[in-house]
Amino acid sequence: MNTPRIVVLGGGESGTGAAVLAHTRGFDTFLSDAGTLAPKYREVLLHHDITFEEGKHTPEKILNADEIIKSPGIPENAPLASAARQKGIPVISELEFAWRFTNARLICITGSNGKTTTTTLIWHLLNKAGFNVGLAGNIGQSFALQVATCNYDCYVLEVSSFQLDGMFDFKADVAVLTNITPNHLDRYDNQFNLYAESKMRIVRNQTEKDTFIWNADDKVTCEMLKNRDIRAKKIPFTLGNRIGKEGAWIKDNNLIINIEEDIFSMKIEALALQGRHNTSNSMAAGVVAKVEQIRKPVIKEGLSDITAIEHRMEFVANVHGIAFINDSKATSVNAVWYALENIHQPVVWICGGRDKGNDYSSLTELVSKKVKAIVCLGVDNSKIKASFGELVETIEEYTTAQEAVVAAYNLAEKGDTVLLSPACSSFDLFDNYEDRGRQFKQAVKRL
């Protein structure tokens, strides 16, 4: 009997992890990347003696697969993925593949905004409570690599719409949906409903034994739930008044969570992460903690002592009275709206990257009030210039983090804030949003 052949498309964190898992489970494994592999991933593949190619995709070596694992950065309609499907070769995500090889409990978080913060908060709470828990998905180390090399009882997974698109049998024990706002529309034929449907795949395959936690303040989510049969137990959270028997809400400046008639409460000002959007994120994390039966004192301590999350409104430094904030994870217009809303000083805004079908109109009022200059950090900045050219007098363009930071510093004055909050993906100039954020921080430290 022939050994099943697994081909992995893309050799980043996700793809390399998937290749390692496939190889260690005895599959005939091959990885193909059209670009140049990062040295750390090439070393991992060589260490495990996994066959790979870089700088090209060779159809003959790919379309003989029994199954293809596609990295999330590669579009669903990429020519090789389409050709594979036409030949009847399944094309799946890394998470779908890794799920087959673990019995761990899976807590999965998706949403247009807030999913990284919520994921990190949940992991922090579970870790503080003594759970043997891994953090993976669209954050940190690859889920597949952890399944191959670790032995966690539980995983907290940040799940992107691209990863959800390649999930078929995968099931979340606990699913969290933070919100659905326009994002990545370039990958969904500029059709918001297709993107929204992708997000709803988070509840796919859930049963009555599972839990779905959702944001009742998000109009799109509410609309999507109206005519959908969800078998999992549904628990809402809201910044408004109580909804239903179970869930989370605000009353008299207290965050209140009720699960199975057991009430948890804490003052909003005691939360480590401030701002309305972070209160929602803390609520979602708190509901998960209650579902997982974490003790109330541990939840309260965890929600009040978590430190800043890297690349999410992360304070970097104050240089001669100018504050520098790294919000590289803000790859959507809505995420930038939250960032600008929470800054009360004049802003020099560093933005740009690979446009995802963005509509910048929701930022008009905030930009006109708060932004004194824009520094574009992208290959094509025409849409940003067209959207804000009449609102902001100074718009400059650069292609390295170092140049952008120096320019922003020169445009700012004492008391101003330099904000990296791109509204775009990073793949035109950087490996990913983490690479962009770290290069930004390194450039600030050189000032």
Helices, by number, come to 17
Strand content: 15-25%
| Amino-to-carboxy terminus distance | 62 Å
Rg, please?
Answer: 22 Å
Give the class from helix and strand content and strand pairing. Answer: alpha/beta
CATH class of the largest domain: Alpha Beta
Mean pLDDT across every amino acid position: 94
Summarize the main sheet. Answer: 6 strands, parallel
How many β-strands, per DSSP? 20
- Name the assembly state: single chain
Helix content: 25-40%
Describe the structure.
With 447 residues, the chain is α/β, with parallel strands linked by helices. It folds into 3 domains: 5-92, Rossmann fold; 96-305, UDP-N-acetylmuramoyl-L-alanine:D-glutamate ligase (3-Layer(aba) Sandwich), CATH 3.40.1190; 314-445, Alpha-Beta Complex (Protein-Tyrosine Phosphatase, Chain A). The chain is 35% helix and 22% strand. A 6-stranded parallel sheet has the order 7-8-6-9-10-11, covered by helices on one side. Helix 9 links the parallel strand 9 and strand 10. Helix 6 packs across helix 11.
Concise overview:
This protein is an alpha/beta fold. It has helices at about 15-25, 40-45, 60, 80-85, 95-100, 115-130, 145-150, 160-165, 190-200, 220-225, 275-290, 295-305, 335-340, 365-370, 380-390, 400-410, 435-445; strands spanning about 5-10, 30-35, 50-55, 65-70, 90, 105-110, 135, 155-160, 175, 210-215, 235, 245-250, 255-260, 260-265, 315-320, 320-325, 345-350, 370-375, 395-400, 415-420.
